[in-house]
């Protein structure tokens, strides 16, 4: 029981330094606090079953191993998960109109088709005729 108290005192005395150590490895202070808490659970379990010659060194080693495992896990997840910062999936390719723009274009075309009368020749303008007609522009010799 006295040994458990001394281990808790050791942990509490070095908790801030352990969080700083883990945060340097992981890069996030919130995750570093989780790592230190997990390290305390493993440390208290290990000290209940055996005597440790260098308990502080053992505690730092546990924090280091858990932090490195967490960093590897984050790297592995980042290869397969899309985060909000990296959401290029929602972006349209260059030159492509957005679905909203396509819908607006369709509505405008439908309105235009309802107002304009249909042409019998498929929508093509009539062929151009030379003006004035050739038979009128030249005087006929007598």
**What is the global morphology?**
rod-shaped
N-to-C span: 137 Å
Mean pLDDT: 80
Question: Could you estimate the helical fraction of the residues in percent?
Answer: 55-70%
What's the main sheet like?
none
Which stretches are low in confidence, meaning pLDDT under 50 for 5 or more residues running? Answer: none
- Count of helices? 5
- What structural category characterises the helix and strand content? mainly alpha
What is the gyration radius calculated from CA atoms?
39 Å
The sequence of SSEs as H and E is HHHHH
Detailed description of the structure:
The longest helix is centred in the middle third of the chain and has 26 residues. The chain has 142 residues and is an all-alpha fold. The protein is rod-shaped, with a radius of gyration of 39 Å. 65% of the residues lie in helices and 0% in strands. The termini are far apart.
Question: Could you list some keywords that capture this structure?
Answer:
142 residues; mainly alpha; 5 helices; rod-shaped
Summarize the structure.
The protein has 142 residues and is mainly α. 65% of the residues lie in helices and 0% in strands.
């Amino acid at each position: 029981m006295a040994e458990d108290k001394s281990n808790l005192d050791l942990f509490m005395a070095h908790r801030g330094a352990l969080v700083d150590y883990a945060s340097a490895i992981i890069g996030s202070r919130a995750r570093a606090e989780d790592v230190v808490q997990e390290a305390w659970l493993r440390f208290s379990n290990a000290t209940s079953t055996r005597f440790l010659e260098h308990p502080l060194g053992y505690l730092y080693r546990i924090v280091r191993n858990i932090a490195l495992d967490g960093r590897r896990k984050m790297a592995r997840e980042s290869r397969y998960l899309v985060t909000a910062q990296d959401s290029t999936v929602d972006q349209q390719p260059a030159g492509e109109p957005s679905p909203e723009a396509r819908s607006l274009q369709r509505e405008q075309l439908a309105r235009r088709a309802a107002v304009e009368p249909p042409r019998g020749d498929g929508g093509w303008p009539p062929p151009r005729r030379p003006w004035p007609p050739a038979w009128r522009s030249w005087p006929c010799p007598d």
